[in-house]
Structure formats: C-alpha cells, structure tokens
Amino acid sequence: MPRPVQYNTNEKVKLVDMPEGYMGEGYMATSFDKVVGLARKNSLWPLPFATSCCGIEFMATMGAHYDLARFGSERMGFTPRQCDMLLVAGTIAKKMAPILKQVYIQMAEPRWVIAIGACASSGGIFDSYSVLQGIDQVIPVDVYVPGCPPRPEGILDGILKLQELVGNESLRRRGGEQYKQLMTSYGIQ
Amino acid sequence: MALTNEHIMQRLQAKFSDQPIGFDESYGMLNITAPAAMNLKLMQFLYDDEELRFRFLTDLTAVHYPERKEEELCVVYHLHNLQDNVRVRFKIYVPVAKPDVYTATRLFAGANWMERETYDFFGINFVGHPDLRRILNVDEMDYFPMRKEYSLEDPLRTDKDDEMFGRG
Which of the residues A99, A100, A129 would you substitute to probe the B interface, choosing the one with the greatest number of B C-beta atoms within 10 Å? Predict the structure, then answer.
C-alpha cells in the first residue's frame, strides 16, 4: 500500500544569514573573523552553575517550552572543560566564590560568562556578611540578566545578547594586552 | 512522680547551696542562670543525677546584649531529659572582652560543631575545645558577624548609592 513519503522539508528551520563576502561559481571569500564568529555564536555550550531559584528559571529555559536549543545550545555540558558559556544562576556565598573561580579557570578559552538574576549580578537582596556582592568581584562577566528571578525570556534575551558579542568578537581579542590586563586584575593567569 | 520545674530547682539548690544560681520560668520552661566558671559542674550534675537525667544537648548558641556591661555575651544551652520529656534552658554570661567558656565537648560529643558555630558567629572562646575554628563562614573572616557591632549591610560595598534607593 503506497503511503506518502514524509521527511523534514526544512521549511520551518531558520538559517543564519550568510556573512558578507565575495562569491562566484564554486567559491566564497569572506573574512576569517566572521566565519569563526558565526560558528562560535551558534554553538555555545552552556555550563549551568545554578545555586538557587534562578536555576529553576534556567531549567525552564532549557525545557521544551522555551527551548534554548533553538539558538544552538543543544546540550548542557556538566564539565567546565567542554563549555564556552558559564551561566551563573543564583546567590553565590563568599565561601562559594573560590569554587566558582576555579570552575571559570578550568574552562578553555574562549569563554564567556552570563550572570543570571539580581544575586549573581549584584548580591541582590542579600546585602549580608556571607554573600558575594556580585560575581564580577571574582570573575569577569559579559552579560548581566536582571530580575529576581528573570523570566526565561529574559535569560534567552541575555543569551542572544551574548551571541551578538561572540559573533562580533575580534579573533585577536583574547591574545591582546587589554584582555591580559583584565585577567590579571582578577588574579587569573 | 513527674519531674516538675520546682523539683529541678530544689535539687539544684540543695546541691549548689553556696552558689548564686538564678531561676525563672518562661512559657513553662525552666531557665537556669549560673556563673560562667561552673557551667560544666552544673551540667555534669544535671547529667549524672538519677532524678534529673538531662542527657541530651538540644542546642547551644549565644546571644549578644550590648547594653549589659561586663556580661555582654550569653551562652545558652538547651538540655533535654528524654525519659521524662522535660527540657531546661541554661544560661551563662561572659564579658565580650574576655569571652572564655569551658567546652562541653567532654560531656556531649554533639557540642563540638555547635561550639564551633557559636565561636564562628559570636567569638566565644571555648576553652579546651578539640578543634575550635570557623565552621560556616569563610576562614579569612576576621570578625564575628552575629555580634551587634556591625551594620546590617556590607560596609565594604561601594556600588550601592543610597540616593538611588530613595534613602539618601
């Protein structure tokens, strides 16, 4: 009995725009920066560092409804060594700070950090002797997502902002003097 | 005969007749106050006595009363007689300048971490404690955060401008 062949016609799959460049029959020339940026930004591997309620929102972001995988972050890597994007979601106590820093150091370059929620960004309501007043005291942060906790849309927006940064980052940035100074200011070598 | 607060008081008064031991009762629970130097002697008696049998240390913590001169820090022991299900509270007062208290770890092994916590937050120096160091806070902390000597907010913080929070 014949049945219609079903396959994914890719009608709904959105493709990224092709970078600027020269094209002719059988070749395309563009700058290396753009190609690498394109590849990096659309396959960010997230490393969740979830300590409290923002972590729950992040789980929703990863779930089927909000589906972070649409943006190229298909799977969590629960090891810093494979990941590009550290997502700090939740209150970081001062006792936790060295552990967070160690996780950051274990990540390979290039690496990016998003501070999700008020606590990770600034300590939030925990203006207290035991709580780190923002993770940017121990590691450099690329994107801050405000909210207590932020909605999954907010987290997605933060990740899209980060993708913009990643896509436009110069390939020379991480070897540059300014970046070295930034790392030195955090005591990371 | 059930173990009543009056009976505990009588036993203690008979044993330590020459010592200034204070009693009062709040919400039906007996509250014993004694000089700091005899905390172990009194708890040992509460433990050993065949009628009292307070053999379980429920809790151990401290309170800071900045307005009480020479007895600013109060160490509180909550003791439980599991057989009669009777509880008492035992308090001793020490000056904040010299907060030395004999450790209860010989009597109750469970006092070990509780005393470390009390040291961590109030700076009570438990004399004879086997391992008196911070348990919850970071090791580098150089003050005792639960004493009423510090502002509630982190004074080291520079990014919080009061005017922006409407409390300038």
Answer: A129
Per-domain boundaries in chain A: 44-166
Q: What is the CATH number of domain A44-166?
A: 3.40.50.12280
* Class of domain B5-165 as given by CATH: alpha beta
Element (H, E) at B10: helix B5-15
From residue A77, how far is each of A15, A42, A82 by CA, in Å?
Answer: 24, 16, 6
Q: Say what angle helices A152-168 and A32-41 make with each other, to 10 degrees.
A: 160
| Strands B86-94 vs B73-81: parallel, antiparallel or unpaired | antiparallel
CA angle B4, B6, B8 (to 5 degrees): 75
Strand partners, A27: A24
Q: Which residue has the tokens 């629970």?
A: B29
Give the helix ranges, DSSP H, for chain A.
32-41, 53-62, 97-106, 117-122, 152-168, 177-185
Residues 115-174 in A contacting B (C-alpha not used; CB under 8 Å): 122-123, 127-130, 133-134
Which distant-in-sequence residues (6+ apart) come within 8 Å of B102 by Cβ? B37, B39, B40, B126, B127, B128
Report pLDDT digits (tens) over A166-183: 999 988 999 899 999 999
Q: Give this complex's ipTM.
A: 0.74
pLDDT tens for B77-109 read 999 999 999 999 999 999 999 999 999 999 999
* Sign of the torsion angle spanned by Cα atoms B87, B92, B96, B101: negative
